[in-house]
Design a protein that fits this description.
With about 240 residues, the chain is of the alpha/beta class. It contains eight helices and eleven strands. It starts with a strand and ends in a 13-residue tail after the last helix.
Length: about 240
Amino acid sequence: MNIIPVIDLKDGLVVSAQQGKRHAYQPIHSTLCASSLIEDVLTGFLSVYPFKTLYIADLNAISHQGNNQKLINDVISNNPSITFWVDNGIQIQQLPSYDVLKYKPVIGSESQNITHFPGTTAHLINTILSLDFFPEKGYTGPAELLNNASLWPQHIILMALERVGKDRGPDIERLSHFCRKHPEKDFIAAGGIRHEHDLLQLEKTGVHHALIASALHSGVINTLVIEKLQAKKMPRKNITEAF
């Protein structure tokens, strides 16, 4: 199991995400660090395990209310051994200008405003796609991006925002459906993961990567749990340059 810590940035601070209700997000309170500054949170994560991949969501940029790009750039520059996945609301048609980025862009379906994708498939190869599912609304984004798997890169986040920050467990039914339908792809679980048992369930489902924040900050998923899970050999197809 490959665990990828999550950093949600809003107004320069790391915040605690709750079901995609971004207006209500508050600065994080963590057992791993004394503040909600991104440097402290990152140091806290690395005190648990030497993670090689981290996910950052720039909530200001996604919501078109400014951005935290300087903070993100500084963190990336100061941690060259870590691969960062960054969701900053980038649209697929902007990708050609992002070829020299020092991070992997996350293409959030919620941020896309086009309905047809001719000529864009090649740009998606070196990205991470996030299929975003909100409370009540369900999938948010262009229908073609959800239904046409030929557009997808190798790695796809199934973002269950209705479960983020809640003690509900991952959406095993949805994850199982995608794994069965597209066994050639690597799916990443996001939202609701509580403890080791959830992670073991994900592995049985065929999901070998998970985005996690709350369970790390609470200490429920700790060094011992991670070392045990990371010791399990991942299927060959999951060992790629994205990680």
